[in-house]
Specification:
elongated; Immunoglobulin-like; 5-stranded antiparallel beta sheet; 7-stranded parallel beta sheet; alpha/beta; 23% helix; 3 domains; Alpha-Beta Plaits; Rossmann fold; 14 helices
Length: 573
């Protein structure tokens, strides 16, 4: 079900976005095979009217090889793999070109091709074409599966967290809080605004991005790397749907004094995979094709404000049992993208107040970061889809502002909108900044740090997941991991020198009580702090009154845990 609601509120046009889709020449050989009980139509998965998915049984006689990956992967894609020690695999090799030639000779029009799944989506105009394809020796049949009914679970939405204090920065305008709630402005202040990180935005259209002032900064600095349309190749993405434009503005848009995206200096690929005119399973294959393109082009992050549960053809519908991260094609593809070293960030879904309630695909995928929605007071938005995944994994992963999110409007100004479609890009942009600040981190390490920095990490749940991430803390955790490589001390501190915040990072999980004592350089004890036992503790944060009384100078910090003591020299400025 899809709807876009426009209404006026307090003199401001507000856009509620609930776009949650149900949101040389080689001649082929055709060898006959007899099918006595199945028609050609039942052998292949129909993904939309007259459109079918054809799977291949092998990649034989393929001119490409993992020995020469530069023939099918960009240099940036190879650099991403090399940096994260990810080898080029068999599923990176393109589909055997001769197989595509055979489909064309049979009369099929190729729509998308997937090297990861060794498959193609084709347009078939005559049944005779399906009969010919069914006789190709390298083509696999499609198993017919029975549907499973949806289950229901109880959910609740409670949060007592308070809004952070702080004055809006003039550059951010009204968009200040949606960055500051994650301490993202601290990354920005240190010069980390996404530079050098490529983000692929998979969406429904990017109306006006070539003309609207919010994107002038991207064009002026050559940060739009390119576009692709996997729904209608050759179409003008900039005259299409507005949804992708809104999403892009949240990440990379800039209107001085009104709006600043969370990664205004990142690079972008704009990829259309969603067909807003209908809902069929083919859109998952469009998504897969777009994700594979993003991988081969060298994207570091995928942002997808799309999700799938039910379709115009009920026989294609997913069930909650399918939301196990391993059943739907799009979720398996999202995990494959993550295995290539891409940080995959997706919307959890907007069905929290519907009969379905749950996350959609690919938010159920194990290795993606699924984003739910909260309001400015940190309370869960009524529409934000709930977890867990059907196999019991924590979903959504983390939360961001998705109720009243500021974004660019199609008239050149700014607007507010609602939806996990809008909370996901906030996290995608901040993740780009975090990766810029920690270029040696892997996508897996980045994802773990974002989860661990969240305010409910010790006690996650089905509504908020791990909670609202603190990207300043995630930066601290990643830097501590890098600094502690081969380091045997029990605790390290960051930053050092410090002013009003100090993090103690433990090399091991510390669940016992922690005793902290501060000494001046004469050995005089000037402060003592005690932290009770806490499950799963990996760090401590000291701030406020704990540090405000300390004058500037040099100190020795003594940390005692379970009869193990570490002493660190620290400086307050």
């Amino acid at each position: 079900m899809r709807a876009i609601f426009l209404y006026h509120k307090a003199g401001r046009l507000t856009v509620n976005l609930f776009i949650q889709p149900r949101f040389g020449l080689i001649l082929p050989f055709i060898i006959g095979i007899s099918f006595s009980t199945l028609s050609a139509q039942t052998l292949f998965e129909q993904t939309a009217p007259s459109k079918y998915r054809i799977e291949f049984s092998n990649k034989n006689d393929n001119p490409f090889s993992t020995d020469n990956p530069a023939e099918f992967l960009s240099q940036k894609a190879l650099e991403r793999r090399n940096k994260q020690n990810i080898p080029v695999a068999q599923n990176d090799i393109p589909v055997t070109p001769a197989y595509m030639d055979s489909l064309r000779v049979a009369g099929a029009e190729i729509l998308t091709v997937s090297r990861w799944f060794n498959a193609a989506t084709v347009l078939i105009k005559h049944d005779s074409t399906l009969n010919l394809i069914s006789k190709l020796t390298f083509v696999k049949g499609f198993p017919q599966n029975a549907s499973i009914p949806v289950r229901s679970i109880n959910t609740s939405a409670t949060s007592g967290a308070q809004k952070l204090s702080g004055s809006p920065d003039a550059d951010y305008g009204l968009s200040w809080w949606q960055t500051a709630i994650h301490n993202g402005h601290l990354l920005h202040n240190r010069g980390n605004r996404g530079e050098g990180i490529a983000i692929a935005v998979l969406d429904a259209g990017f109306f006006g991005v070539d003309q609207l002032p919010a994107f002038s900064n991207l064009w002026d600095n050559n940060r739009i790397l390119g576009t692709r349309d996997f729904v209608n190749p050759g179409a003008d993405l900039f005259r299409g749907h507005t949804h992708g434009m809104h999403v892009l503005s949240i990440i990379g848009g800039t209107l001085t004094g009104e709006l600043m995206g969370t990664a205004p200096e990142a690079d972008f690929w704009l990829l259309r995979s969603e067909d807003t005119g209908s809902e069929y399973l083919i859109e998952e294959d469009n998504w897969i094709a777009a994700a594979e393109f993003a991988d081969s082009a060298g994207a570091d992050i995928i942002n997808s404000s799309l999700g799938y549960t039910v379709f115009d053809d009920p026989s294609q519908d997913h069930t909650w049992d399918d939301m196990d991260g391993n059943t739907t094609r799009i979720s398996r593809a999202a995990d494959i993208a993550a295995s290539k070293g891409i940080l995959v960030i997706v919307s959890a879904g907007n069905q929290g107040n519907s009969e379905w309630k749950y996350i959609g695909a690919p938010a159920d995928a194990d290795s993606v970061l699924a984003i739910g929605a909260v309001d400015e007071n940190r309370y869960i938005a009524y529409f934000s889809s709930r977890g867990p995944s059907s196999d019991g994994n924590i979903k959504p992963d983390v939360m961001a502002i998705g109720l009243g999110t500021y974004m660019a409007g199609s008239d050149g100004g700014i607007r507010q909108g609602n939806g996990t479609s809008l909370s996901a890009p906030l996290i995608a942009g901040l993740s780009a900044c975090l990766w810029q600040a920690n270029p040696h981190a892997s996508a897996v390490e980045l994802l773990a740090a974002i989860r661990e920095s969240s305010d409910r990490y010790a006690l996650p749940g089905d509504d908020y997941g791990y909670g609202i991430p603190d990207f300043n803390l995630a930066d601290v955790l990643l830097k501590a991991n890098e600094n502690n490589s081969g380091f045997v001390e029990r605790v390290s501190v960051f930053p050092n020198p410090f002013h009003d915040q100090l993090y103690l990072i433990f090399n091991l999980v510390v669940e016992d009580p922690v005793d902290i004592r501060m000494y001046d350089l004469t050995g005089k004890e000037i402060a003592q702090y005690f932290f009770p036992a806490f499950p799963g503790r990996k760090y401590l944060k000291m701030d406020g009154e704990q540090l405000s009384g300390l004058p500037r100078g040099f100190y020795l910090l003594k940390c005692s845990v379970s009869q193990v003591t570490s002493i660190v020299k620290i400086i307050k400025f």
